[in-house]
Amino acid sequence: MGNAAANLDTLDADLSPGALATDPDVVEKYRRDWTQSDAAGMPLGVVRARDADDVQAAVRWAAAHGIPIVPRGAGSGLSGGSCAVDGCIVLSLERMRTVEIDVGTRTAVVEPGALNVEVKRAAAEHGLWYPPDPSSFEICSIGGNVATNAGGLCCVKYGVTTDYVLGLDVVLADGTFVRLGGQRIKDVAGLSLLKLFVGSEGTLGIVTRAVLRLVPAQPPAATLVATFATVEGAANAVVAIGAVLRASMMELMDAASINAVEDYVTMGLDRSAGAMLIAQSDAPGAARGEEVELMQRECEAHGAKECFVTDDPAEGELFAAARRAAFPAIERRGALMLEDVGVPVPLLPELLGGIADIAARNRVEIPVVAHAGDGNTHPIVVYPPGDDEARDRAALAFDEVMALAIRLGGTITGEHGIGRLKRAALPEQLGPEVMALTHRVKAALDPQGILNPGAGF
Q1: Phi and psi torsions of 416, nearest 5°
Q2: Is residue 417 part of a domain?
Q3: Which of 194, 211, 320, 393 has the fewest Cβ atoms within 10 angstroms?
Q4: Cβ proximity of 111 and 119 under 8 Å
Q5: Domain end residue (candidates: 57, 92, 127)
Q6: Is 456 left (phi over 0), alpha (psi -120 to 50) or beta?
Q7: How many Cβ atoms from other residues are within 10 Å of residue 230's Cβ?
Q8: What's the domain count of the chain?
């Protein structure tokens, strides 16, 4: 490592002017993602790449010296996937922000540092839409979305990131540049290597460009907001609705998350509710109203206290904004351990009931928000910062939530990735054969193990 540090000047010479930063104050800003993990290591330096050439130069240098590379986008990750390790080079892609819209092919050609919202805005100028919409869409990067196969509020109907990736430029662990896919809707030539890199969390290669599929602008949506006495009642309504139609949004907030948001920004939410569903339909014509009426009937049949319906898209967006505010609102309540577990939709009531039992047994608060329509929940374990005993109970609850999801035939992550926080639970979900196959793929593409070591698996 000492030799590598001494040779940082050779790396600097191969990069764009000013791309390499070693000033401790600058480096400190790139050590952690949104988790603010105490386990983050100290990098040798940060490369703020301006283009694919900078990425190749950094990776080639790291490969020559056996130095770890930790790729980083906007730093909004929720599983520790872009937290630094000791002696690494953090490779930031935040300066690679180009977005080009090709109307003829309905694609966006995007550099990894571009924010999700920037792609949406650029597409909207041409009457097009990029559907994947994480709650953090205003601050998260496309590179990070690809790395974790991010989802969002509308994925129940429109799918997740991988459904919109048509092409990727990737720098491999030895610095080789490869171009996979392109502006083609259908392409089955060769192995499906493109999808191998989506969701790989920077462990197999570093994305320097993405070709994203766009669709016509989303039709106006009608919104239903239903409140329930219990979270199980809301979950049962979700199961019933999902059996007969596919909503364009189906979000759930429990009592703790409702009150956290209302404390954070007053929105007039029902503080007495045990849970709230925010559902939307963007079906064409009269079908939109019919779908909302059906959803309302199912909510009332499963004990809804109150139902509110609006055809005003702006009014509906206010409720979606309340849901998006949940993470920053809950963050104000203490230190957090964020979960991202999912189960088959019919088992959602059992998952939510089990999470409540885990919270009570471990004497911790676990507010829950969920992309309920596809069974993906975000239980957020909250504990007082600086209280080691409470942190131990929170960590136990964190592990128990993942074990519960696995026991129900679910997953320990639906969209945030394994990162560094969930590695220990992954073998239990995948099993030894799949873990062995995973390591074989990693060894083939990154034999030195320098790409984001400790993340994913």
Answers
A1: -90, -15
A2: no
A3: 393
A4: no
A5: 92
A6: left
A7: 19
A8: 3
If we measure between CA atoms, which residue out of 275, 273, 285, 269 comes closest to residue 238? 275
Terminal Cα distance for the chain, rounded: 24
Cα separation, 451 vs 338, in Å, equals: 24
Q: Please give the sequence-ordered ranges of beta strands (E in DSSP) within 75-221, or none if there are none.
A: 89-92, 99-102, 107-110, 128-129, 165-171, 177-181, 206-213, 215-216
Cα 175 to chain centroid, rounded: 27
The answer to whether 90 and 70 are in contact (CB under 8 A) is yes
Which residues form the domain of 14? 2-92
> Is residue 176, in this structure, part of any structural domain at all?
yes
- If asked whether residues 194 and 227 sit together in one domain, one would say no
Which of 175, 197, 216 is a domain's end point?
216
Q: Phi, psi (5° rounding) for residue 302?
A: -110, 25
- The predicted model scores a pTM of 0.94
CA angle 82, 135, 103 (to 5 degrees): 95
Q: What is the pLDDT along the chain (457 residues), one digit of tens a residue?
A: 445 565 899 999 999 999 999 999 999 999 999 888 888 999 999 999 999 999 999 999 999 999 999 999 999 998 999 999 999 999 999 999 999 999 999 999 999 999 999 999 999 999 999 999 998 999 999 999 999 999 999 999 999 999 999 999 999 999 999 999 999 999 999 999 999 999 999 999 999 999 999 999 999 999 999 999 999 999 999 999 999 999 999 999 999 999 999 999 999 999 999 999 999 999 999 999 999 999 999 999 999 999 999 999 999 999 999 999 999 999 999 999 999 999 999 999 999 999 999 999 999 999 999 999 999 999 999 999 999 999 999 999 999 999 999 999 999 999 999 999 999 999 999 999 999 999 999 999 999 999 999 998 8
Round to whole Å and give the CA distance between 27 and 364. Answer: 34
Residue 425 lies in a domain: no
